[in-house]
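Q: Hi! First time doing this. I have a protein sequence and I read that you can turn it into a structure. Is that right? Here it is:
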Amino acid sequence: MSAILTVSQINRYISSKIKEDKKIHGILVSGEISGFTNHAKTGHLYFTLKDRECAIKAVMFNSMAVRLKFAPQNGMKVIVAADVRVFERDGVYQLYVSDMQPDGLGALYLAFEQLKEKLLYEGIFDEAHKKPLPKMPRKIGIITSLDAAALQDMLNILSRRYPIAEVTIFPALVQGANAPESLCGAIRYADSLKLDLLICGRGGGSPEDLAAFNNEALARCIYDCNTPIISAVGHETDTSIADLAADLRAPTPSAAAELAVPDISVLYNGLSAAEKTLDNTFLTRIEASFHRLELMSERLEAASPKGKLAALSEKIISGEKRLSAAYKMGLQRAAGDISERAARLDSLSPLKTLSRGYSIVYKNNKPINSAEKVSVGDTIRIRFSDGEVSASVSEK
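A: Yes, that's right. Below is the predicted 3D structure, encoded as structure tokens:
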């Protein structure tokens, strides 16, 4: 008769047999994720891996899950490295996953797309948040590795194009696990110095080399930075999360230096042309002002009291001359008229008659022209042309 076994004994026996089977240790299994759960407290991942016909439960503990480059999701096809073991408590066998990769899509690329979609939804890449770059920055910060060849390219271009800018280098790691934290620290410190512009980046490399610039913490650090940032990571075909979060993306570090500052020779040429234009404008306006001044002077002179007084003076003088001439002419006419009247009066004067031998008889100082007006004994005066005599009438 067979021995009676407990459930625990059976599960433990099956578990030991599976552990002894090396064929199901360190195997690669492909399938589609279903029923995915990320345990909030422990960080363990629980899911089911299935194909068209079957399914198997799987677990990936936190110590392994933290190394994933992407976030597993339901419906995602993956390839897992795992051991088949028995979970003795429930009597079920399952996959204990040590690694996971997307099936047909690189982990780094998938992680990039997932993070890009997440930050895009949060508005980290919104154009409305991006700050305009200063046209002529005086203080520029470069955040990169001191050993980067791109650093010398940027310094050469900046010194050639815009030598008056003050450039400060903020060393940081640009690849490796500690690079995102190093880059964030450099950005925060540079931002505290109130510079005009920051350039953050590195030269080209493999996707793994550029992975530090596809970091969520770095993207948020760039988003929160008050100083305008140009991101220049890799080559023209490389686009990082940092590029999307920055205020401006440059295809290369050298292009970032070109975009950061104007060409001072172009500015000089522009200033020279502007100076000539200003001179011509100034001279034209001066000539126009002089012309207007001359016209205004002529109008002012024509309307001035002095001119009016001069015209009135000339008019008075002319009037005086006419009045004097008229006065003289009037005097001459009056003199002629008086002479004529005097001659006529003289011809009618009694004295003229007296001069011809006639005399005038006065009685009581009144001339008399009839003997009837004289009586005997009257005293009369007789006036001759050369004098008078008194007489007494003795006979009539």
